[in-house]
Structures are given as structure tokens and as C-alpha cells.
Amino acid sequence: MSFVVWPAYAKVNLHLAVLGKRRDGTHELLTVFERIDLADRLKIEWIPARGVEIRCSHPGVPCDASNLAARAAEVFLRAARIRRGVRITIEKKIPVAAGLGGGSSDAAAALLGLSKLSGRKLAKEKLLDLAKGLGADVPFFLAQTPFALGRGRGDEIKALPWKARLWHLIVFPRFAVPTRSVYQAFALTAPAPDARLLFCALKEKRLSQVRDHLFNALEPTVEALYPAIRDVKSAVERKGGLPHPMVSGSGSTVFALGRSRRECLAAAGKLAPKASGWQVLVCATKE
Known about the structure:
Shape: globular
Number of strands: 11
Radius of gyration: 19 Å
Helix content: 25-40%
Number of helices: 11
Distance between the termini: 28 Å
Number of domains: 2
Strand content: 25-35%
Mean pLDDT: 94
CATH topology of the largest domain: Ribosomal Protein S5, domain 2
Largest sheet: 7 strands, mixed
Order of helices and strands: EEEHEHHHEEEHHHEHHEEHHE
């Protein structure tokens, strides 16, 4: 086998509570991840020279050692004791620095794809350790599950056995939000709602209650730093007709749940994305 092609799916956070600061300076989180069917595609292939080569035409994606997929490939090759070179070509579909986990998903795809390409299947615990060392969201994508609960930094993952399929209107306002800046500005002001209410609504597939129990503790901070996000949320609700739009992760993407693909497509049409300059997508849970 000379190459593999591997999908790297995006995520949204249906619940994101910040519980406080950890001793290492990061934040203690409780989050509910949902994998959606918006995806990058990675082609991973052997090359004659040693090292890791990254190719991507998107101007926001670094093609050097700072790329998270490159770092993932390097740690995998080292852990698996493989002395070969790798080229990773990223076909970018997930908006960059948008709260959808694109870089983390690419890193997990690199780990999984290289495991397949090389035939060197590291122990599950070892692969998970590599993922945790790369970033807090990478273990979720490594788990390859539609829904999961994240604790700790968000990297302690428990798959959730829900069979719900949710439809989303996704709006990316075409500007990036650095995650670090949001957490630096964040101040804990109020306790989070009980995530079990969301669990029950998802388990029983009650969409209206799922909408009611969406939560993101970072949202007020993101809106304060980037007031234009309020305009996106307002347009989704007033023009698009979808209630309770919410920021995903640290932003800048806003998403809202629709009852069907048709309803989300109708809402997307009403937002006039060409006039606004926003990127507007319709996505569903990736089962």
C-alpha cells in the first residue's frame, strides 16, 4: 500500500461548561461533542525522503512543522519506529480557527491513516496518549463516535450511545477566532446548567428540548471580543427562522438546529450568503 485517503470530520459542542482552572493553567471542562458530516480529506503517502511534508492550498493552513497533522505524523512515526518519509495532502473543507475542530480532526486522521498505511497498530492506550499530547480535541476525533462526553481538558472521552441524527445550519462569518485569546479573556460568572437535561432530550430525540438545553459558557466572551458574531446569531434567528443559535466551541462559527434538511436549506437561502460574505452550510450528525 503506497497511500491512504482518510476523512477528517468536524464537530460542534452541544454543551460546553468551564468548571475552573487546572493546576497546569488550562481549564477544566465538561463538554458534549457531536461529530458532523462536514469533512476535510487527507491523502497520506510514502515519499523517498525522510520527514513529513504537508501540502494544502488553503492560505490559513500552515504547511510546515507547526501544522497539527504534521506533528501527529511525526509522533506516530517516532512511536512506531518507522524510518520513512510521509506526505500529507489536505483538501480543506472545514473553516479554519472556527470552533469546528478542523486542525484537531486532521491530526486524528493523520494518526489513524498512518496506522492503516503502515500496518503498525499501536496499542489503543499509546495512540490515545499521542492524541492527548497533540491537543484537547484530538482524542474525540480519534474515538470515531457521533456523540461523546469530554471531561478534564475535554480530552477524557466517553462515547455516548445516542442514535439521534441532528440537522444543522452552520454559519462561518469568515474570520478566525484564536482559542487562546478567548480562554485568556474568559471569566467564570455563573454555574452551567445541568447537562443531564440535554442527555435526556437527545436520548429521547426531542429536538425542541435539545435546542432549549444547548449551552456554551464561552459564548459571552466570544461575543464581547467579536461583536459581529451577535449579528450572525440575530440573522440566523430573525431571517433564517431557526431558534437558539449558538457559537460552537470558541467560535467564530454559529450553528442552529433545524427539524429537517429542508428546513435548514430554506434557512440558508434566506440568509443571502453572497450578500453577507458568510459561508453557510447545511450539515448533519455523522453517524
